[in-house]
Structure formats: C-alpha cells, structure tokens
Fold this protein.
Amino acid sequence: MKINIETVRLYGNAPAFVQPVDTGCQILWSNVNLGAINPWQVGKRYAWGELEPDIEFSEDRYLSNDILERISSPSFLQKRYMETEYQGKLLKPQFDAANLRWGGKWRIPTFQEWDTLIALSTIESTKQGGSLGHLITSKITGNSIFIPFTQLRRNSNEIFLKIEGYWSSSYAVNNMAWAYTNNHNINHDMCYAGLCLRPAWVNND
C-alpha cells in the first residue's frame, strides 16, 4: 500500500509530514516518533500513561502528577489501564499521548504489535541523518521504517543502547510496562521512566 503526502492528511490530526507505513500487520506505523519531524529524530519522551512530554523522570515526579495517589496504591496505575480479553492490560485511550496529539485512530502500539513487527521483519542496524538506529523492513510488503536508538531517562540519568527505548501500551507487572528495546526485542521498565513513542494507526476499516 503506497501512501503519499496528500493521503496522509486523512489520518487524524497528524502533521502533514507523517506518513503511515504498511508493514503487513493490522496497524500502519508512523514514519516518525511523536514530537519528531524526521525519521532519524528521537522526538519527545514520556512516562507511561502521561499525556505531556518531560525532560526529567523520577518516581517522585511521576507521583506529583497525581499527588493524592501513591505508586504503591493499586489505583494509581489501575486507573491508567484496562483489562482486555486477549491482550492483557492496555493503556486507556484517555491516557494515550499519541491519540491525544494526533487524534483519529492513532495510538501507542501494544506489546503484541511490537512483537509482530519484529517477527515479520528484517532488522538492520544503520544510520539515517547521522543517527544510529534500526531499519525495520517488512517481509510481507517490503516497506521500511527507521527506528532511531534513544536514550532512556530515569532519575535524571540517560542510559544509552541495549535498553528500553519505546513504550508499548501494554502494562506488565509491578509498576512496569512493556517496551521495545534498542536491542530489537521486548522488555519492561518502570512506568515513571522517560521513553519515546512511535504512534500507529489502527487499520481496521
């Protein structure tokens, strides 16, 4: 499926430079991160379930957005996710920054959607625009997306490479959510950590 710059304007409120890419899955992947203009740019970082980007990430800062709650209290994270029959605990739409920013059917991909992308693609470490990252090419459609390596931020520190880089919408356990890593697999990290977002369009029409 070929989507040009005129067609993309039909996809919610996403900027005109956003191009949905068909990788043969049930979703179309954005060609850029949330907050980025070019595919090689990292964009903005978010704590899991937060609607505004930040530059500092800590448990105390995460809690300050909901001062009456405590992360040890089940209600703090339980109100951010919903139970589903087949995909476990997923972020509620009202806590999805991708949907808030771009509208329409844009959202943060699930754990299963990241996993499917990995399984049905070839992954090559390369550079675009001077940035290291993964060129992920679909074995089904031949289309590619570039995923730049990012720096996870936690407790105001940056940790580079081989760790979590992109949130999924899937909650894991013990105040952690699943994420795509710079080692092209799936792992989990604390929900208050600052990771990037790669939106996807739900292609179910």
